[in-house]
């Protein structure tokens, strides 16, 4: 909120025809933002931060002080001139006055709000602007939606083409976002290959259509780097106020959770937030499987029955227990005449059932095989739906 207020005050100062108009506009802002607007006006003009409870009185005294100076000198006195004289001679706040060019101040302020690589807002600014938009939505009973997405398999872009190509991808995606979003929407690079948008005055349905259009634009985007073609896709999630929650602070986490549902469904898609504790889409699957512990070359191959599967792992039922943390392979025969799918991962759950059999959970979300395994599982999910 404070960063947005600084920008508003700076725009007001730059676009005011004269000091008297600026003073009136500051008074108007104080009715909306309270004494914080006065405090930041002093900070912007003089580089000092006055106590919040004394800002209003100092502002009124400054206006009277300027009027007295103009009466005595019989000529116009600029607000900044009167401010420096007032703070130095009437208070103890300004002991070493300095002159700062407004354009330079504006440039410094802008750099603190924007991501240098993409030109989008940075996460710090988004957090402050988000709080302000939440307050406005609550006050005027308006909908808004959070869209959270990241680039699919971005590590592969860096590994294949180099980090400069990765930077170019981030810039290209940022350009698509800027061309598609409305002026009232707030878009930021959240970190790494993650992006976040606050879609103002937008309900769950209309936001989904926007997110789908953005996803398709990015999927269609192709560029070459050092003569090599490069394409990327995104996976995203949306959560809306008040449709998904009337606590706006939960919405970013909800949108993040929805993004993982999109990845779990095969990537390159947008998902709505669902009240689901699991981050990945799970599909029931009842197939005979064979599993083997890989830590030991002479270990037995066990027959088991699968129960459900998701990108990230598989749950199966087995007669024997397996050690937690052990590396195992699971062979799934989905159809006769076709090659079985083989997954590799770690045992993360072992639970003894009333029947005397064991529920065993295996995760495949480790870096070395993540992309290969997730692609295989995504194909299984699509085949079972």
Could you explain the architecture of this structure?
This protein is α+β, with helices and mostly antiparallel strands and 385 residues long. It has three domains: 2-111, no CATH class; 123-272, Alpha-Beta Plaits (2-Layer Sandwich); 282-384, Thrombin, subunit H (Beta Barrel), CATH 2.40.10.220. The protein is 44% helix and 23% strand. The chain contains twelve helices and 14 strands. It has helices spanning 2-15, 19-33, 35-46, 55-73, 79-89, 102-111, 123-140, 154-161, 163-180, 204-220, 251-264, 370-384, and strands at 144-151, 186-191, 194-200, 223-225, 228-230, 234-241, 270-272, 282-284, 288-293, 301-310, 313-318, 327-332, 341-352, 358-363. Strands 9-10-11-14-13-12 form a six-stranded antiparallel barrel. A hairpin with a 7-residue loop joins strand 9 and strand 10 (301-310). Helix 1 (2-15) runs antiparallel to helix 2 (19-33), helix 4 packs across helix 5 and helix 8 packs across helix 9 (163-180). The protein is elongated. The relative contact order is 0.07. Mean pLDDT is 81; it is low at 365-370.
